[in-house]
């Protein structure tokens, strides 16, 4: 069993812990919080040993009825791989601790590529992660872009990509961020950072991206256009989507034309926390012009798509499973899902 610690048991960390705990070849040996919270209490209830960054705060946790197993430093010593899911910018400060104990570590997309020197997406570069000490799982948006761009590139060759990210304003459980009533250009400058981030995984791809933020919480939507090298058709692109274990096809006949309906669909499927681990491409949006330009809309559940990527990254770095298809299948099956 691969012993996994999750440093930063928040939106991403709690989902990674639950996904790890159902895998046959890995177990959670600890999770960490900085302050007492309902999430910390749930960690206790799930049976995950809870560690804290500052042991002087232990009485605050105990007052809230939350058991503390020890310090984050102790947690790191007991694991094989640490998944750092602390807020963006904090993770890089933890690298010294992971180096001190010679541990393997995975960071998230809120950190720069340089924190690990290697950026990961299981469908694109799993084999390069096998046995590595440090890896960064790219952001939710970059994960969604990499999945479809690489899949199309393998079959038809992608000359260039132009994509706009329509981003959610905040995660559903976060009452502090917005906007509440605005469409925010984020950034107002063009291009956005998402294109260069895709190139950390797919260096050969010519891509320009733009991004805006809107008052919604559940998902992002991408408007994607790709110029292809070889002639393709709508039907052939749909075959690629159907064959991909992490891309779902929102079929025309379902009548789904919004993120709200995808959320309801995920709830009805009894997905934990309504999580949508796969990118969702709307069948009706897929079109290929006479000039061989591919267009599509895809919806990305920001809290979920990177979770399965973290599980594969753990497995690759541990080194036993060298084939991406095997790892992806193991991860998906343990979670009980097939791309919709
Ligand atoms: P979050 O704020 O929900 O959770 C972070 C957790 O880290 C909190 O539980 C907090 O208690 C803990 N923490 C804070 N400081 C800490 C410290 N010094 N030591 C240990 N724990 C500490 O954040 P999140 O949304 O889960 O984001 C985590 C990372 O994942 C970021 O890099 C972010 O960019 C990335 N990410 C987030 C999303 C998303 O939609 N939320 C999507 C993809 C990637």
Helix content: 25-40%
For the secondary structure, the number of strands is 16
How many angstroms separate the termini?
30 Å
Largest sheet: 8 strands, parallel
Short description:
The protein is α/β, with parallel strands linked by helices.
Description:
Helix content is 34%, strand content 24%. The chain has 12 helices and 16 strands. The strands form 2 sheets. An 8-stranded parallel β-sheet has the order 4-3-2-1-5-6-8-7. Helix 1 (11-21) crosses helix 11, helix 6 (122-129) runs parallel beside helix 11 and helix 11 crosses helix 12. Bound molecules: nicotinamide-adenine-dinucleotide (NAD). Nicotinamide-adenine-dinucleotide (NAD) binds at residues 7-13, 32-34, 53, 72, 85-88, 90, 108-111, 139-140, 171, 302-303, 306.
SSE topology sketch:
Elements: E1 2-7, H1 11-21, E2 26-33, H2 38-46, E3 50-52, H3 58-63, E4 70-71, H4 72-77, E5 81-84, H5 95-100, E6 104-107, E7 119-120, H6 122-129, E8 134-137, H7 140-156, E9 158-168, E10 184-185, H8 194-201, E11 207-214, E12 220-228, H9 234-243, E13 247-250, H10 259-268, E14 279-282, E15 287-288, E16 293-300, H11 305-318, H12 324-335
Parallel strand pairs: 1-2, 1-5, 2-3, 3-4, 5-6, 6-8, 7-8, 9-11, 13-14
Antiparallel strand pairs: 9-12, 10-11, 12-16, 14-16, 15-16
Helix pairs in contact: 1-11, 6-11, 7-8, 11-12
């Amino acid at each position: 069993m691969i012993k996994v610690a999750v440093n930063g048991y928040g939106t991403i960390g709690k989902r990674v812990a639950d996904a790890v705990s159902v895998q046959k070849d890995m177990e959670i040996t600890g999770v960490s919080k900085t302050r007492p919270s309902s999430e910390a209490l749930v960690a206790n209830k799930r049976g995950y040993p809870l560690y804290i960054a500052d042991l002087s705060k232990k009485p605050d946790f105990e007052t809230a009825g939350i058991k503390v197993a020890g310090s984050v430093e102790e947690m790191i010593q007991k694991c094989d791989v640490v998944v750092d899911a602390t807020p963006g910018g904090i993770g890089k400060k933890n690298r010294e601790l992971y180096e001190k104990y010679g541990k393997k570590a995975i960071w998230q997309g809120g950190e720069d590529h340089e924190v690990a020197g290697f950026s990961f997406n299981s469908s694109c570069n799993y084999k390069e992660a096998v046995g590595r000490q440090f890896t960064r799982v790219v952001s939710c948006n970059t994960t969604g872009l990499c999945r479809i761009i690489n899949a199309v590139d393998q079959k038809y060759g992608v000359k260039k990509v132009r994509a706009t990210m329509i981003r959610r304003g905040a995660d559903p459980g976060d009452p502090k961020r917005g906007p509440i009533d605005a469409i925010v250009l984020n950034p107002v400058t063009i291009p956005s950072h998402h294109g260069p981030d895709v190139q950390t995984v797919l260096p050969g791809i010519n891509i320009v991206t733009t991004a805006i933020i809107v008052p919604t919480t559940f998902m992002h939507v991408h408007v994607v256009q790709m110029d292809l090298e070889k002639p393709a058709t709508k039907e052939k692109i749909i075959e690629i989507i159907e064959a991909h274990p992490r891309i779902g096809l929102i079929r025309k006949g379902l009548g789904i034309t919004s993120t709200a309906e995808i959320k309801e669909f995920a709830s009805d499927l009894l997905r934990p926390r309504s999580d949508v681990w796969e990118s969702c491409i709307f069948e009706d949006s897929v079109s290929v012009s006479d000039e061989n330009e591919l267009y599509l809309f895809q919806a990305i559940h920001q809290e979920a798509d990177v979770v399965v990527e973290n599980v594969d990254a753990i497995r690759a770095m541990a080194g036993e499973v060298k084939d991406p298809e095997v790892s992806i299948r193991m991860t998906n099956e343990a979670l009980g899902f097939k791309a919709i």
